[in-house]
Amino acid sequence: MKSLSPLRGSQSYSSKSFPGLTPGAITFRPLRGLVVLPCLRSLFGILILLGSLSAVIAQTTSTPFPQATELQQGPPLTNQEFVQLLFQLPKHPEGRDKLIDDVRKRGIAFPLTDGLRSLVATKSGNDSLLRHTLEEADRRRTNPVVASLPPTSEGLDLLEQTRKATLGAAEKMPDYLVKEQIVRYVAEGNTRNWRPDDHLTVAVSYRQSAGEDYKLLSINGVPPNENQSYGMKLGGTTSAGEYVSILRDLFGPESRAEFNMVDTDTLRGRRTIIYEYEVKKEFSHSTLGWGERGSTPLRTIAGYRGRIWVDREQNRVLRLEEISTEIEPGFPITAASQVIDYEWVTINQQQHLLPSHAVVELTDRVRAQTEQTRNDILFRGYRKFGTEVKITEVDEKDFPPDKPEPNEPPKPETAPTLKPPPPKKPNP
């Protein structure tokens, strides 16, 4: 069984520049506050002290982010090169991350046609990240001026304005209630051949004074019994984290995070700048722990790095990706990654930027067996959480009906009716 739960504490917030960084880089120190407790499904428990929740894969050969020595441009991918790599994905799914990274770094030298989109969907299992990366690469190919990075001074100013806006918004965040719809997947080895395990519905409350609290509402549509709760007793991988504070922590001073402006993107119709960030192991508060039956006899410190997508007009982070790095060789936890998408929601007639989708991936290797787990999480039905309400009193009726996803046709409110057949003409 695996789980994630928050580690809460006090933080201070400030930023400063540090000498010796890449030109244009700014260093901050986020105080990490997330505890990740993963383990094998039947016997073991693993503890990871990370930051807040978003996608999480540890430093491996298939990391979605290139090593620092690999951050160099090459010629754009030709159609032949891309198709050759694409056709290898069904047998070698671990090559997906490198393909995405090549497209991001090198771009493409061919148009993205409907036929090629269909081929990508077939060979990649309709991978949304690969599809999005290709669409953005095609926009950069057709309009390189719009896709070019702004001057360094403008990039630094945007990052500073984002820091101020993020910290200010965190202080004004209201107490809220939200429903998480979680699909949990498992994969054997390092194949990333995910198969659905179960579906969970979880109520999550957030209070400024107490952080997050959870209540399991259903498992595969069935209410849980009295012995089932969202946490260690549930089994499998569970995830929890300070979704509100992860961005606030990122811009704090504790971990000397180095930010570098690296790319542009269009995310949900918004023009964004992508910044990569990194926290070295020597400054990291990210602790990995592993043990049997919930104990944690083994611990190690890991570094971490990732990317943020910053809205160029609203100075807010719309997406965060993060992976663990510098994990001690031979440690049972071999991978931890997280991704969060943020969107604007209305709570008590005010707009707030909150998570809409998150993905958590964990990999562990114990007694020569490797297992991967993936939690795909949707956040629905944000509403104000009254001071007199307790999370234990919340159930499904406290949330509005789920709206169909954008790619899902709306369901009719009433059952369709058939027109009566035309009257038969009499035979002559």
Descriptive tags:
428 residues, alpha+beta, 17-stranded mixed β-sheet, 18% helix
Structural account:
The chain has 428 residues and is an alpha+beta fold. The protein has two domains: 2-61 and 155-398, no CATH class; 68-149. 18% of the residues lie in helices and 37% in strands. It contains seven helices and 17 strands. It has helices spanning 79-86, 96-106, 114-124, 128-142, 144-147, 152-171, 245-250; strands spanning 2-6, 26-28, 34-37, 44-50, 55-56, 176-188, 195-207, 211-219, 237-238, 257-267, 270-279, 286-292, 298-311, 317-325, 333-347, 350-366, 369-384. The protein has a 17-stranded mixed beta sheet that branches. A hairpin with a 5-residue loop joins β12 and β13 (298-311). The longest helix is centred in the middle third of the chain and has 20 residues, at 152-171. It starts with a strand and ends in a 44-residue tail after the last strand.
Task: Give a topology summary.
Elements lengths: L1 E5 L19 E3 L5 E4 L6 E7 L4 E2 L22 H8 L9 H11 L7 H11 L3 H15 L1 H4 L4 H20 L4 E13 L6 E13 L3 E9 L17 E2 L6 H6 L6 E11 L2 E10 L6 E7 L5 E14 L5 E9 L7 E15 L2 E17 L2 E16 L44
Helix pairs in contact: 2-4
Average residue pLDDT:
74
Multimeric state: single chain
Helical coverage, percent range: 10-25%
Output the number of helix runs.
7
Structural class per helix/strand content?
alpha+beta
Uncertain runs = 1-72, 407-419
Main sheet attributes: strand count, strand direction, barrel closure? 17 strands, mixed
The tally of strands reads 17
- Radius of gyration, in angstroms, nearest whole number: 23 Å
- How far apart the termini lie comes to 76 Å
Strand content: 35-45%
